[in-house]
């Protein structure tokens, strides 16, 4: 469990801290920019992976679901949402993602649900809320749904293809789809030095590293408990802004950080329905549920035989 928490917290921290880097791409074509980012990310993942399992036909729909809703669609809708709503409002709505993940998990626990609610409250305090007009609320809700789908669509397929397999194949699919759609919407543009740096950093650190760490966390913790760690994204974003001198640390922000931390502690507690190894009946210690995998299986590499898990 400790490895899962560490992986999920690191992934959330990386994504939150990358917000200023993403801002360097303002005005750059969205779809083709993502295509280049995911192409480089896929190349890095292919170098790291010892082998890449081939997806079956039943794996294609969830992989496409991750790409369309949680990757390409998420980023496009997020940009659109901020045109009709203040960033704080969008962030506050996205704070509902941990609650949705906790409620939609088949193995949800009371502690995960309570922790998610506390985390969401902390995110609202951190974001400060805000206003919206026109389709702002609808776009913010769609953005939140994309955040949720990025995890839920991957829960089943990551057990079959492994952490690196899912991260790599989604990047490959996102590259192809983004390149095709971007050719007709937005077009291609040669990035300047600043934009090229941003794309490279997002591809290597946020895509290749953070994607793998996040799916590793979902494997270990389940989607319900891993979801509370989403609250660390705005915390990391706040810390980055304070360090860069772009924002001051206020009392409300400090309370928000404390609330998110409390929610994470509550949400990561072991549920009462979840037996420990010492109390599990003989012969049931190697079973799967909808969001967790045996901690000593090699599902992270696409198989299910007892062995050491290889972290991405």
Automatic annotation (TrEMBL):
<feature type="transmembrane region" description="Helical">
    <location>
        <begin position="197"/>
        <end position="216"/>
    </location>
</feature>
<keyword id="KW-0812">Transmembrane</keyword>
<feature type="transmembrane region" description="Helical">
    <location>
        <begin position="60"/>
        <end position="81"/>
    </location>
</feature>
<feature type="transmembrane region" description="Helical">
    <location>
        <begin position="87"/>
        <end position="105"/>
    </location>
</feature>
<feature type="transmembrane region" description="Helical">
    <location>
        <begin position="251"/>
        <end position="268"/>
    </location>
</feature>
<protein>
    <submittedName>
        <fullName>Threonine/homoserine efflux transporter RhtA</fullName>
    </submittedName>
</protein>
<feature type="region of interest" description="Disordered">
    <location>
        <begin position="274"/>
        <end position="312"/>
    </location>
</feature>
<dbReference type="InterPro" id="IPR000620">
    <property type="entry name" value="EamA_dom"/>
</dbReference>
<dbReference type="Pfam" id="PF00892">
    <property type="entry name" value="EamA"/>
</dbReference>
<comment type="similarity">
    <text>Belongs to the EamA transporter family.</text>
</comment>
<keyword id="KW-0472">Membrane</keyword>
<dbReference type="GO" id="GO:0016020">
    <property type="term" value="C:membrane"/>
</dbReference>
<feature type="transmembrane region" description="Helical">
    <location>
        <begin position="27"/>
        <end position="48"/>
    </location>
</feature>
<feature type="transmembrane region" description="Helical">
    <location>
        <begin position="112"/>
        <end position="132"/>
    </location>
</feature>
<feature type="compositionally biased region" description="Basic and acidic residues">
    <location>
        <begin position="274"/>
        <end position="291"/>
    </location>
</feature>
<feature type="transmembrane region" description="Helical">
    <location>
        <begin position="163"/>
        <end position="185"/>
    </location>
</feature>
<feature type="domain" description="EamA">
    <location>
        <begin position="136"/>
        <end position="266"/>
    </location>
</feature>
<keyword id="KW-1133">Transmembrane helix</keyword>
<feature type="transmembrane region" description="Helical">
    <location>
        <begin position="228"/>
        <end position="245"/>
    </location>
</feature>
<dbReference type="InterPro" id="IPR037185">
    <property type="entry name" value="EmrE-like"/>
</dbReference>
<feature type="transmembrane region" description="Helical">
    <location>
        <begin position="138"/>
        <end position="158"/>
    </location>
</feature>
């Amino acid at each position: 469990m400790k490895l899962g928490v560490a992986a999920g917290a690191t992934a959330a921290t990386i994504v939150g801290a990358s917000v200023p880097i993403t801002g360097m791409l303002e005005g750059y074509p969205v779809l083709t920019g993502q295509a280049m980012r995911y192409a480089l990310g896929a190349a890095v993942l292919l170098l790291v992976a010892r082998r890449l399992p081939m997806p079956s036909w039943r794996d294609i729909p969830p992989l496409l679901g991750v790409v369309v809703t949680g990757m390409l669609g998420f980023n496009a809708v997020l940009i659109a949402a901020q045109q009709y709503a203040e960033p704080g409002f969008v962030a506050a709505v996205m704070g509902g993602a941990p609650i949705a993940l906790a409620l939609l998990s088949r193995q949800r626990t009371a502690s995960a649900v309570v922790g998610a609610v506390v985390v969401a409250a902390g995110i609202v305090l951190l974001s400060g809320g805000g206003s919206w007009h026109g389709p702002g609320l609808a776009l913010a809700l769609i953005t939140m749904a994309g955040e949720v789908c990025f995890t839920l669509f991957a829960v089943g397929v990551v057990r079959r293809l492994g952490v690196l397999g899912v991260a790599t194949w989604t990047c490959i699919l996102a590259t192809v789809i983004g390149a095709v759609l971007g050719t007709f919407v937005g077009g291609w543009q040669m990035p300047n030095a600043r934009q090229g740096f941003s794309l490279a950093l997002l591809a290597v650190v946020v895509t290749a590293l953070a994607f793998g760490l996040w799916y590793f966390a979902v494997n270990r913790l389940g989607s319900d408990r891993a979801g509370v760690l989403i609250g660390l994204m705005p915390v990391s974003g706040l810390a980055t802004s304070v360090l860069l001198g772009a924002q001051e640390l206020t009392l409300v922000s400090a309370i928000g950080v404390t609330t998110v931390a409390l929610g994470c502690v509550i949400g990561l507690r072991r549920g009462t329905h979840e037996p420990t190894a010492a109390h599990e009946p003989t012969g049931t210690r190697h079973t799967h549920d909808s969001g967790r995998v045996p901690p000593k299986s090699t599902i992270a590499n696409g198989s299910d035989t007892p062995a050491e898990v290889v972290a991405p």
